[in-house]
Structure formats: structure tokens, C-alpha cells
Design goal:
Layout (H helix, E strand, L loop, with lengths): L2 H18 L4 H14 L5 H6 L7 H18 L3 H12 L4 H18 L2 H18 L5 H16 L6 H10 L3 H27 L7 H9 L9 H19 L1 H4 L3 H15 L1 H6 L6 H4 L3 H19 L2 H11 L5 H18 L2 H19 L6 H5 L5 H14 L8 H12 L6 H27 L1
Helix pairs in contact: 1-2, 1-17, 2-17, 4-7, 4-14, 5-7, 6-7, 6-8, 6-10, 7-8, 7-23, 8-10, 8-22, 8-23, 9-20, 9-22, 10-24, 12-14, 18-19, 18-20, 19-22, 19-24, 20-22, 22-24
């Protein structure tokens, strides 16, 4: 069988199985990945060692490192402290808490990456909803959306932006000045739209609100000495994330170094409690980790056989030479495709395509930076960034932050189905892309 046909059949069958949820998505992803390798669509070397077709270990070890950090920090009571503080600032009113937590998530995602942010914010959210006897799903799903919107606005907020910046030779400030404003507009509209969905449906019993407002934040601290160490280490890790480019360290390296320091900080406490030093690793969400491993191999196989590149070619081929047409086809096409497959390999396939398009439009320009910065090429780069980042809100598997949030909710006893997430995510995705369309039109055309 033709490798392209085989890859599409395997991926389609796996996607259908994930959507129907008859089998756990981790099993489906690993089985599909194993089929891709055993049937020769990708080799084992490509699956495990290729930067283009294989597992993205930067994402994998970033997740592992941050999960270890969170497991250790949880034992100090810090998340309970933050939960009480947030609830009191919002007067223990559910909708105000959704707005506050979503806004904080968006801001942090612009400074860090969106996966790290939801890993930090989800435990706080679960603690608040537990104390107020609320369903956490209306809080967690908007946070996943907010993390993707906030991450769109900066170079470091979402991995596709880092990849685009590298290929298009764009700076942090260029991303901030061009995408920052539209991300803030989309976030404002998103928060306003939440009122019509949750504003009048969530209520808290008066006695629970009163008991929450009466709590004192510091009384929730369980281990003051470990808390002090963790706060300093969290600050150090966040500084590392902010300056990882200047330090020439990948975010995964920062996360692993931070996790090692956290385990050293908690070493004495584990001995006092008679626990194993490595019990923090036991609580890592290994189902999520292995789902990502399988998903990277599945999508990498589509990249290798050229399926994603062919789709990308079709997006821009019939508008070649028409800057506005190409820009908006890339915007909408990237959004739809990024909701179906992970946006990282999609952007990897699109980047060289846009460079080739620039060469065909400007054959006499030889300097690379001048070529990719041509006035009729720049809108296409921004359209790719907006489509890839915001399109991830459409489905559970569209963005890494979505997968993490859904698995955290499942672990807490609140499963979120593929269709329930999409019922909320698809309108958010199309609304944000429509705003992006208008923004790009007004700014560049």
C-alpha cells in the first residue's frame, strides 16, 4: 500500500477512536504509533531521534519536569493559599472567579508557555472549586482557552511562535507589537462571552461563601520551611523560562533542572515522613506523557509522507500572487488543521512553504532576512501564527494545554469528553479567527 494512504488510514482510524472515546486515547495513540513504525511509514530511528518526524522531547521533558515540581509544591499548601486568595479577591462569586483565573492564566501564558501555565493554575482551580462545592469543568475549560489566547501574543507563549520567529527572523518585540494587541482584543471578547455561558448559571451556597471569606490564607500552609524553598525555586524556574533563549537552554532543560532542585529541597522531608525519595515521580501523569509520545509519532508520520505539506500547498496554491487571499487562506486553513493535528508539526511543514512562496514572489531578492520580511510576505507569517495558535482551541488534541487540562480534570473525577470540549472550543476558535481576520485586514490591507 502507498505510504501516504497507509499513514492517512492509520491516523484517521486513531482519530476516530479518540473522538468516540471507546478506548482510552493513550492506548489508541501508542497503538497507532506502533503501527506507523512496524509498517514502515516511519523508521524507529525517525520516530525516536528525528527532530522533524519524531517525538518532541522538549515538550515531553517540560511536562515531566513541571509535573514533578507541582507534586512537591502541592505538599506545602501553596495551592490552597493561592486558591483562598483568589476566591477572596473575587468575593467567592463563581463567575468573578472564572474571569480572574482565566485572566491570570492568559497573562502567565504570555510570559511562560501555555502548558507550564495550566500545570500551575489547574491545582489552584481544583482547590477553589472543592472548597465551594462547584463543578471545576466550567473553570478549567476556559483556562485552557485563555492559555492558548494569551500564548498567542508573545514569541515565547506558544511553541509555534518560537518556530515561526526562528524561520522568519522575527524578534520578541515584533511579536509583542503585532500579535499582542489582537490577543488582548480576543481575550476581552472571550471574557465577555463567558458571561452569556456561565454568568447566571453558577451559584454558591451562602454558608460556603461566608466560610471561604472567613479563611486566612496563611493558615493553609502545611510546611513553612519547604514552602519558602519552593517559592524561591519557583521564582528561579520562571526566570529561567523567561530568559531561556539568552541562557541558550531549552525550556525542558530549565524544567528538569528545576525539578531536580525541588527534589533535593524535599529530600529531608521525605525521609522524615518515611517516604521514598522518588515518590514524586510516581505521581507524574504518565498517561498524558505517553499520549503525547504516541501523538507526536502519528503526526510525524503524516509530515514524513508529505500529507501535511500537500494540505499546506493546497491552502496557498490557488491564491499565489494574491497577498490578501493567501493570508486569509493560511489563517483559516491553519486554524482548521491545527484543531485536527498538533500545531507544532503543522507549522514545521508550513514554514518552508512560506519561504518558497517568498522566493517565487521576489526572485531577485537574495538576502534571506530581506526576502522573508517583504511587505507582502509579513502578513502571511502573522496569519500562520494566529491560525496555528488559536486553532488549537477547537478540540482536545488541538493544543498541548488542552490535553493537560482534560487529564487533570479526569484525575480529579470530572471527565471532559471530546465533544463537550469541542462544543465550547469550536465557537471560541471561529470567533477568535474572525477577529484575527478583521485585525489583519485593517492592519495590512
Amino acid at each position: 500500500m502507498n505510504p501516504t494512504t497507509l499513514a492517512l488510514l492509520i491516523f484517521g482510524a486513531c482519530y476516530l477512536a479518540i473522538v468516540t472515546e471507546r478506548i482510552h486515547k493513550t492506548i489508541v495513540a501508542l497503538f497507532g504509533a506502533a503501527l506507523m513504525i512496524s509498517l514502515g511509514v516511519v523508521t524507529q530511528e525517525e520516530a525516536f531521534y528525528s527532530h522533524e518526524f519524531g517525538v518532541d522531547y522538549n515538550v515531553i521533558f517540560l511536562l515531566i519536569g513541571m509535573m514533578v515540581i507541582i507534586n512537591i509544591t502541592r505538599e506545602t499548601g501553596l495551592f490552597e493559599v493561592l486558591a483562598i486568595w483568589s476566591a477572596k479577591r473575587a468575593k467567592a462569586q463563581p463567575f468573578r472567579m472564572i474571569l480572574l483565573l482565566s485572566a491570570i492564566t492568559a497573562v502567565l501564558s504570555a510570559m511562560l508557555d501555555n502548558v507550564t501555565t495550566v500545570l500551575l493554575m489547574a491545582p489552584v482551580t481544583l482547590e477553589i472549586t472543592k472548597r465551594l462545592e462547584l463543578n471545576p469543568i466550567p473553570f478549567l475549560v476556559p483556562q485552557a482557552m485563555a492559555s492558548n489566547i494569551g500564548g498567542t501574543g508573545t514569541l515565547v507563549g506558544d511553541p509555534p511562535n518560537i518556530m515561526i520567529a526562528s524561520k522568519a527572523d522575527l524578534s520578541y518585540l515584533e511579536f509583542l507589537f503585532v500579535l499582542g494587541p489582537v490577543a488582548m482584543i480576543i481575550m476581552a471578547v472571550f471574557l465577555g462571552g463567558l458571561w452569556f455561558i456561565f454568568g447566571r448559571t453558577l451559584t454558591v451556597a451562602p454558608h460556603l461563601r461566608e466560610s471561604m471569606m472567613a479563611l486566612k490564607e496563611l493558615e493553609a500552609v502545611r510546611d513553612r520551611s519547604l514552602l519558602r524553598r519552593c517559592v524561591w525555586l519557583l521564582a528561579l524556574v520562571n526566570v529561567g523560562f523567561c530568559f531561556h533563549g539568552w541562557l541558550h537552554l531549552e525550556p525542558a532543560t530549565v524544567a528538569l533542572l528545576g525539578a531536580s532542585l525541588f527534589m533535593l529541597a524535599g529530600h529531608a522531608k521525605t525521609k522524615e515522613k518515611g517516604l521514598e525519595d522518588l515518590h514524586y515521580l510516581t505521581d507524574v501523569e504518565w498517561k498524558t506523557i505517553f499520549f503525547f509520545i504516541g501523538l507526536f509519532i502519528l503526526v510525524g508520520a503524516l509530515v514524513k509522507v508529505g500529507a501535511i505539506r500537500e494540505l499546506a500547498n493546497q491552502l496557498v496554491e490557488f491564491t499565489r500572487g494574491n497577498t490578501a487571499g493567501t493570508t486569509f487562506v493560511v489563517l483559516w486553513g491553519s486554524a482548521v488543521l491545527s484543531a485536527i493535528v498538533d500545531n507544532i508539526p503543522y507549522v514545521a511543514a508550513m514554514n518552508p512553504l512560506i519561504v518558497d512562496l517568498a522566493r517565487s514572489l521576489h526572485p531577485t531578492v537574495t538576502e534571506y532576512t530581506d526576502l522573508v520580511h517583504q511587505p507582502d510576505v509579513m502578513p502571511i507569517w502573522w496569519a500562520l501564527a494566529l491560525g496555528a495558535c488559536l486553532g488549537g482551541n477547537g478540540t482536545i488534541i488541538g493544543a498541548s494545554a488542552n490535553v493537560v487540562i482534560v487529564d487533570i480534570a479526569r484525575r480529579a473525577g470530572y471527565p471532559i469528553s471530546f465533544w463537550r470540549f469541542s462544543l465550547f472550543g469550536l465557537p471560541v476558535m471561529f470567533g477568535s479567527i474572525l477577529i484575527s481576520h478583521l485585525y489583519l485586514w485593517l492592519r495590512f490591507f
